Amino acid sequence: MSTWKTLMLQDSASPLMEQLMFFHDHTMMILIIITILISQMLISMIFNKFIHRYLLEGQLIEMIWTILPAITLILIALPSLRLLYIMDELNNPMISIKSIGHQWYWSYEYSDYKNLSFDSYMIPTSELKPFNFRLLEVDNQMIIPFKTHIRLIVTSADVIHSWTIPSLGIKIDGTPGRLNQANMYINRTGIFYGQCSEICGANHSFMPIMIESISPSFF
């Protein structure tokens, strides 16, 4: 989860989030190189006094500054498209879980088991224990096994919600009358927090998401 000292992305807990972080770092390095190069050119043009009265065209430099940005865009686009297809891929899931957004709480249905469904409400501040996190703790968290392919189906019962866990690299809209699908694969045990990332009404910030990842042998 995020803390006061978190300057970058949260620590990844899934292979998908690791790939997203690699792509972020790759793109940021390209942007830093472009920024330094353009800054140097601007400073050079501002402070030098070189002039050429009869210079009307420079075809070589025009070719260079047309081809280089095209190559740069390809270097960003190819990893981006690869990652986009990886995020859509679903590998023979072991468990399917349906998450339904309500105003303002989540409900979960484990469709592989009979009559296993529950609502997940935020714990009010007055009932929090000293070790709990304000606005993030819920009374019934979603429990899933780690190192297991899980299919998550998200929908909504009223308005558009967004089911989001930053450390897993998942952000998926819950739309009324529509089923959206995502895949989850968690590397390790732990508790992971998220919140609704869609402005869904007055209590939008009071419908947190809490996942507990446990060993498959205890699931």
TrEMBL record:
GO CC entries: mitochondrial inner membrane
MF (Gene Ontology): copper ion binding; cytochrome-c oxidase activity; oxidoreductase activity
Chief subcellular location: mitochondrion
Keywords attached to this entry: Copper, Electron transport, Magnesium, Membrane, Metal-binding, Mitochondrion, Mitochondrion inner membrane, Respiratory chain, Translocase, Transmembrane, Transmembrane helix, Transport
Source taxon at top rank: Eukaryota
Compartments, record wording: Mitochondrion inner membrane
Keyword match Phosphoprotein: no
Annotated Cytochrome oxidase subunit II transmembrane region profile domain residues: 1-91
Keyword Membrane: yes
Record-annotated Cytochrome oxidase subunit II copper A binding domain positions: 92-219
TM ranges: 29-51, 63-85
Cofactor note: Binds a copper A center.
Cofactor: Cu cation
Reaction(s) catalysed (UniProt annotation): 4 Fe(II)-[cytochrome c] + O2 + 8 H(+)(in) = 4 Fe(III)-[cytochrome c] + 2 H2O + 4 H(+)(out)
Membrane topology summary: Multi-pass membrane protein
Record-linked Pfam families: COX2, COX2_TM
Protein's GO biological process: ATP synthesis coupled electron transport
Record's subunit section: Component of the cytochrome c oxidase (complex IV, CIV), a multisubunit enzyme composed of a catalytic core of 3 subunits and several supernumerary subunits. The complex exists as a monomer or a dimer and forms supercomplexes (SCs) in the inner mitochondrial membrane with ubiquinol-cytochrome c oxidoreductase (cytochrome b-c1 complex, complex III, CIII).
Family: Belongs to the cytochrome c oxidase subunit 2 family.
Function: Component of the cytochrome c oxidase, the last enzyme in the mitochondrial electron transport chain which drives oxidative phosphorylation. The respiratory chain contains 3 multisubunit complexes succinate dehydrogenase (complex II, CII), ubiquinol-cytochrome c oxidoreductase (cytochrome b-c1 complex, complex III, CIII) and cytochrome c oxidase (complex IV, CIV), that cooperate to transfer electrons derived from NADH and succinate to molecular oxygen, creating an electrochemical gradient over the inner membrane that drives transmembrane transport and the ATP synthase.
Protein name, entry field: Cytochrome c oxidase subunit 2
Organism of origin: Otiorhynchus dieckmanni
